[in-house]
Design goal:
Two copies of one chain form a homodimer.
Chain A lengths: L2 E5 L4 H12 L3 E8 L6 H13 L3 E6 L35 H16 L3 E3 L15 H14 L1 H4 L5 E3 L7 H10 L24 H13 L11
Parallel strand pairs in A: 1-2, 1-4, 2-3, 4-5
């Protein structure tokens, strides 16, 4: 069985990716970041997800992106609520270079494990317009990764898989259900209550709710207005 | 004055880069990593260097690359000594994806600062053969960075400068001396004594000593065999 490093946030997309990579027969090494995000709730979801799927190893790495700030997810900036998601404006929930940092750690771990596969749940259909979720970004990251490591120089390239990149949220959810994902243990909200109840109004909640609606599936997590 | 993020290890190359970027009129934001390196001595050198040059801000970021291991610099693997540097074999002192991780943090900080310039002291002449020091790697990283950030989408690209990439160690030292660098506060050794005295035998010491010799300049740091 081949090893794969799977970026696992505890959210809907990365959990589906974990199920997908597992269904393809990979031995899963899940990688989660405690990066100073205000929605710490997702870390406990990530642990539940890792447990649910019975993976080989789950690393939660503490990195402090709050030391840079510049995002509503890591700084004292209000998370926008109830707005329409506009593709032209990258929202304030964008975290500077987040996926670049996450993928770089994944690359390091994959190299040490001699894994040749990394999975990330980026999506460029039902998304917030973050630059580091687009196919052209991933392609460029792949080209850089192919020159970055000792493994690559020795002919063992590490492939970055983005199985969700062209799927709608509804398609992602349907796929996950088919693979046995229990979405009740996942967390998407950027601005949950202290008890981890989703606000239902931030971009991430809006995308999630819309996805479940379109898929015709009931989302059984709790929202504030329920 | 334009801002620049300068990767500063406390070593000879990055200190020269700091002097160079300062001489070009940049306001310097120095970035250093406490990444679990066994030669922690370089952190105290980085602090001295930052102080010496009177920069705007110096961030020392703690990241734990020991959690992955896979290198003589972060793991319980002996640092090779007294060998000849062979370009074909990447030595065990290579740290998986280190420059990729370092540059990704620099990119995040540059984006938050609205700095459009990052400086890194990679060198592909008198070096240990690390893949992430080569021009083709830096070019690919640049292309990825140009797609990674909100700043780039909005037309403000962040440029990665590698002023030393094609210089010999002797040329780097001569340039530094010309710019007023005090190399006695820098640290290069991978395997120093507890008191920070350089071993004189690891790849990094060998490259440093050869550079000073060729430049005809006396290196006034202490080596064990002195």
């Amino acid at each position: 069985m081949k090893k794969a490093v799977v970026l696992t946030s505890g959210g809907l997309d990365s959990t589906t990716v974990l199920a997908l990579s597992r269904s393809k027969g990979f031995k899963i090494y899940a990688l989660t970041f405690d990066y100073g995000q205000r929605h710490k709730q997702e870390l406990s979801s990530a642990k539940k997800v890792a447990k649910y799927f019975g993976i080989v190893e789950h690393k939660i790495i503490k990195i402090n992106l709050r030391c840079f700030g510049g995002s509503a997810l890591t700084d004292d900036i209000k998370v926008p609520q109830g707005g329409k998601i506009k593709r032209k404006n990258i929202p304030i929930t964008y975290v500077p270079a987040r996926n670049t940092i996450f993928l770089s750690y994944a690359l390091a771990w994959a190299e040490v494990l001699k894994a040749q596969d990394i999975f990330i749940g980026v999506n460029a259909i039902d998304y917030s317009g973050y630059p580091d979720c687009r196919p052209e970004y991933i392609d460029a990251y792949q080209k850089m990764a192919d020159l970055a490591t000792k493994e690559s120089v020795e002919g063992r390239l590490i492939k970055i898989h983005t199985p969700l990149i062209n799927m709608s949220k509804a398609e992602i959810i349907k796929k996950g259900i088919e693979l046995g994902v229990d979405y009740s243990i996942t967390h998407s909200c950027y601005s949950p209550t202290r008890n981890g109840v989703a606000c239902g109004k931030c971009d991430s909640c809006i995308l999630r709710k819309k996805g479940f609606n379109k898929a015709g599936i009931k989302d059984i997590i709790r929202y504030i207005q329920d």
